[in-house]
């Protein structure tokens, strides 16, 4: 069902997307009481929303795509305020736990595991929404959020590589069929940095500019990341820096888990001579689970995001199985499954094979697609 703009604009319809703020007092509780309380952040992010998904089911309704930005104020606001909120949580907690004596070393790292879940599951996801927008202020907020997890190059990689070459051999973060996460993760950590840097250098070269020109966004990336590292050290010394680096690592792990499941095994048809079909909803896994889409501001409507990347999250459409492949569960459960490759393959490989029969019944040799052996796209 299409929801008219007059309904979309209502505050009550935007409020479920503000549930991410509940993780802030959760982090405060874990940092205050320690012990088993340090587990409540990941349990809240993964467990409670998976349970809500089971209870609330799917949401097949979509907002009118012509709804103007002015009617999306309450949706946009949560993404605009998140950077200062996360900044306060991250650096405030660094100061509190490194200047107090109520937590042991293991408890401190457990607290910052929870913060990594927050900065990865929520922070990087919100930065993803913001980096796609035209206003400079929103793109700056995206850069600030990414600098807090030392993954600033993600913006260049995502916009200049992933969206152009998704589901082709030129996209590092399209997980190949039968590729387990533990092979995927180290591969993308290396390849994404290389492809992001190469994409920015190529853009500068087309403008006749050298790599060190101030137009290179890496100067901004490096400056923001250096500032975050310096602040962590100033507030908490060596221990504060270690905790900061740990949460960043957890956040990146969360991001790449999501990247892994979003396109696993899906490929665009090679048309010959390095040319590929256009991106369609069928080239991303779709998930219409209501609660986890609240937490992840509709990221699970990923088929529509790749089909129409400039759509703000409240306007993303969902698709049925005739147009896009469907995940059996929301991202929280699917990312946990991805950490156990035999379980993941048992769940997902039959779905990939069914997708191939449904959308590409004429392709009989999938080996070049499975192994990334098709030619890279003509750029």
Q: What is the gist of this entry?
A:
Helices cover 61% and strands 2% of the residues.
Q: What is the count of helical runs?
A: 15
Helix content: 55-70%
The count of β-strands is 4
Structural class: mainly alpha
Spatial strand sequence of the major β-sheet: 1-2
Mean pLDDT score, rounded? 96
Instruction: Assign an overall shape.
Output: globular
Number of domains: 1
Q: Which sequence of SSEs, written as H and E, runs from N to C? A: EHHHHEHHHHHHEEHHHHH
Largest sheet composition: 2 strands, parallel
Beginning-to-end CA distance, first to last residue:
39 Å
Write a structural description.
It is built from 15 helices and 4 strands. It is 61% helix and 2% strand. It has 379 residues and is mainly α. It has one domain. It is globular, with a radius of gyration of 21 Å. The strands form 2 sheets. A two-stranded parallel sheet has the order 1-2. The model has no long low-confidence stretch (mean pLDDT 96).
Secondary-structure blueprint:
Blueprint: E1 2-3, H1 5-8, H2 11-14, H3 23-33, H4 40-56, E2 62-63, H5 73-99, H6 105-131, H7 136-147, H8 153-165, H9 181-206, H10 218-263, E3 270-272, E4 275-276, H11 290-295, H12 302-307, H13 331-338, H14 341-359, H15 367-370
Parallel strand pairs: 1-2
Antiparallel strand pairs: 3-4
Subcellular location: Cell inner membrane
Protein name: Alkane 1-monooxygenase
InterPro entries: AlkB/XylM, FA_desaturase_dom
């Amino acid at each position: 069902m299409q929801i008219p703009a007059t309904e979309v604009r209502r505050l009550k319809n935007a409020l479920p997307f503000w549930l991410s703020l509940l993780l802030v007092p959760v982090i405060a509780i874990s940092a205050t009481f320690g012990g088993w309380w340090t587990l409540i952040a990941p349990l809240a992010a993964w467990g409670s929303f998976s349970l809500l998904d089971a209870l609330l089911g799917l949401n097949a309704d979509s907002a009118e795509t012509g709804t103007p930005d002015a009617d999306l104020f309450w949706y946009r606001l949560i993404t605009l305020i998140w950077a200062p909120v996360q900044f306060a949580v991250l650096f405030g907690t660094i100061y509190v736990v490194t200047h107090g004596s109520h937590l042991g070393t293991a408890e401190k790292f457990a607290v910052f595991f929870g913060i990594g879940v927050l900065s990865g599951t929520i922070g990087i996801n919100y930065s993803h929404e913001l980096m796609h927008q035209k206003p400079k202020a929103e793109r700056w907020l995206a850069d600030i959020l990414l600098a807090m997890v030392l993954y600033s190059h993600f913006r260049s990689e995502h916009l200049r590589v992933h969206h152009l070459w998704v589901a082709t051999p030129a996209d590092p973060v399209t997980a190949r069929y039968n590729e387990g996460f533990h092979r995927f993760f180290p591969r993308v950590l290396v390849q994404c940095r290389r492809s992001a840097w190469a994409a920015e250098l190529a853009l500068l070269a087309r403008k006749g500019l050298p790599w060190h020109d101030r137009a290179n966004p890496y100067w901004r990336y490096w400056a923001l990341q250096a500032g975050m590292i310096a602040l962590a050290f100033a507030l908490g010394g060596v221990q504060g820096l270690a905790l900061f680096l740990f949460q960043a690592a957890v956040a990146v792990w969360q991001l790449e888990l999501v990247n892994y499941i979003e396109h696993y095994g899906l490929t665009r048809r090679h048309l010959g001579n390095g040319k590929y079909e256009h991106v369609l909803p069928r080239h991303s896994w779709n998930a219409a689970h209501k609660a986890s889409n609240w937490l992840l501001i509709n990221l699970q409507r990923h088929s529509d995001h790749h089909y129409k990347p400039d759509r703000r999250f409240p306007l993303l459409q969902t698709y049925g199985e005739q147009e896009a492949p469907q995940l059996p569960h929301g991202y929280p459960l699917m990312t946990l499954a991805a950490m156990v490759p035999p379980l993941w393959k048992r769940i997902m490989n039959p779905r990939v094979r069914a997708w191939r029969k449904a959308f590409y019944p004429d392709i009989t040799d999938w080996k070049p697609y499975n192994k990334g052996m098709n030619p890279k796209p003509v750029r």
